[in-house]
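Please complete every field before forwarding. Incomplete forms are returned to the sender.

SECTION A: IDENTIFIERS
Entry label: holo-712
Bound molecule: magnesium ion
Molecule representation: SMILES string

SECTION B: INPUTS
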Amino acid sequence: MGLFSKLASLLGFKRKEASILVVGLDNSGKSTIINHFKSEEDKTIDIVPTVGLNVEKFKVKSLGFIAFDMSGQGRYRNLWEHYYQDVNGIIFVVDSSDSLRIIVAKDELDMMLQHKDIKDRNIPILFFANKMDLREALSSVKVSQALGLDNMKSKSWHICASNALTGEGLQEGVEWITDQLKYMVEQNKR
Amino acid sequence: THLLSEHTVIDLPTGVVAFQMDTCDPKVSAIAVASGGHIYVYKNMRPFYKFTLPTLNIEPAELEVWNQAKEDKIDMSSMKEVLESIRTEVGESNLSSRSQRFLMLEPEELEEFVHVHKQFPLKRQTVVTCLSTMKKSMAEDDAVSCLVLGTENKDVYVLEPDAFTILAAMTVPSVPAFLNVTGLFDVEYRIIVACRDGILYTLKRGFKTGRLCVELLSQPVGLLRVKNTVVVGCMDQTLSCFSMKGRNLWTIKLESSIVAMETIDITYLGIQLIVIALSNGLIQLYQDKYLVDVVPAEDVVTGIKFGRYGREENTLIMTTRGGGLIIKILKRTAKFDPKNLTPGPPAAQHMKLSVPKKTKLFVDQTMHERENAVRMHRSFQHDLYRLRLNTARSYVKVLTSSLTPVSTGGSDPLKLSAQIQGLGPVFRLRLEIQNTSTDKPSTNLFFTFHCDVRIYRVDKTFIPIPFLAPGLLYSSATKVECVSELGISDVIKVFVLRENEGVPLITAIINMPISEGMMSSY
Ligand SMILES: Nc1nc2c(ncn2[C@@H]2O[C@H](COP(=O)(O)OP(=O)(O)OP(=O)(O)O)[C@@H](O)[C@H]2O)c(=O)[nH]1
Ligand SMILES: [Mg+2]
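SECTION C: PREDICTED COMPLEX
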């Protein structure tokens, strides 16, 4: 409960910030998505593959976010789990045009869900089926099937098809996670 | 994934490799396909170049025959005769393919065959049997590499990647079937050639001919380089590992024959595995000689490649006999642990036995055995028959007189054991008798003894056994005194008889010990 009361105080009164973890395979578009939410002056023009991780801050609907933009490369993926403990929400980005590696994404997701810091907590997970503009992209329904999201009963989740280059779909997704976080805070206040 | 493009190759392809042709940007790999006497090079999915193997010298006599044929100066039967004699002289494989074909035809087909072909110049062409690549001067992944190929004519060529000229030509004593290349062409390289006759040769920079490395017991079906060793899969379902010097490090027997093999180099784990596709549809992964993993495939896998595929570093790509393509990506958390799976051969197999030096006696004996082998065998056989005869005789005797301590047949299956206790002159003879049947008791039996009365006196010469329940052990005892003063020993026979019957059911013969008390007391 300690965490939630802390979060409540953070969100409800003081600094209004929620920390979220952004994970997904390399090249899925995580950094591009976060870049989209940043204010005009903070935006970077060219996005290079992330090394290790980047910490970014942005605001949606008066809620401040601290986003941990993790690198998705195989050799950095073991860093993800170190942040599981302290996050309020997770954004999982999938390159929906990379149907071959969706199985790898599922594998990483399953490992994350089995992790001791995630398993028994009700953390909202937002999925972006990114790169929906590409011709060979799978629909969000297909992606959720491939990831086996229907079997994930213990967490509240939501999936959006997105295009990080134009920003399509991103707003909807982030609004969902904002509502989830706010709702949780309400619950804990009572 | 989907089929990107399809090209038809005229002849059966015998080798496919991807290689870097030049240093121009963007770095596009070219694909070389060996087929017949040519190598077709494709770039950007389009045919790019066709390399043809150099033609070989033709026997002058053979050329002469075909020249005559061109001018119609020779008839078919004599032409056939001449070609046949050339064939016996130089061997089938040194004839041009046209002559080979000619000699295979039926007499009535000859005329037409010659008519069709005689206009064209006679060529002798060899075919590519295997294809590989070698980095030219730099070891980077995208550095320019040369093509290395083996031919039916027992040659190994290294081709220049840009102009396709032959940079180096070497020969091996038999037809190459597999090539394995390490090193750089401009610096130092080593090519291991597995030949069709089961012999491995090594070729080095600057040498024209191959050096014999290993003679296999069977034909090779795959050749790999793992660290500093050579791993060869053979037709006899074995996987063997050799040092570069040709010493056999280990050999394992597989459950099925090998169809394809490949090395798996997992850099972040720092291990190299051997993956083998078996004809029973299993994919086995070995670390050295230890099986670390088995993956079932839906179909027999005929081709395996391991490496980077797109963004995934460790991908295993397999083609199956039915034309399928399987892509497997190594899990990030995968660990290969040989201990929890069945190990290879036991360690004892590799222990050196300390064989002692041959002594003079041993050598003499060997010589003797070698010279008199027949006689020795005969006398051995003779003695063996004697032994058998003696055994048979004793057996018959035993059977007829019931001299055994165990009676099996008949109405009373009994077991008798006797024991002598004491040092003498007075002994105690303990007898144990058991009815070994399951349900039939024996009645009205008794023990009696037979001995030389001058030596032994038995206290109770008659011990009745009125009833023997099945399975139970009955014991009784009697005193036996040695009455002789000569310090000799004899046998005492113990009989088990049934009242009113003359033949004993069983007999035990006891070899008495020498009475020790004798010497002192009396
Ligand atoms: N067509 C298309 N391209 C996209 C989209 N989102 C991202 N990309 C491109 O995908 C590439 C990778 O994007 P990144 O944001 O660097 O991916 P990442 O997930 O942060 O990758 P790592 O940091 O290596 O884990 C970039 O070239 C982006 O321009 C999309 O929605 N559509
Ligand atoms: Mg990134």
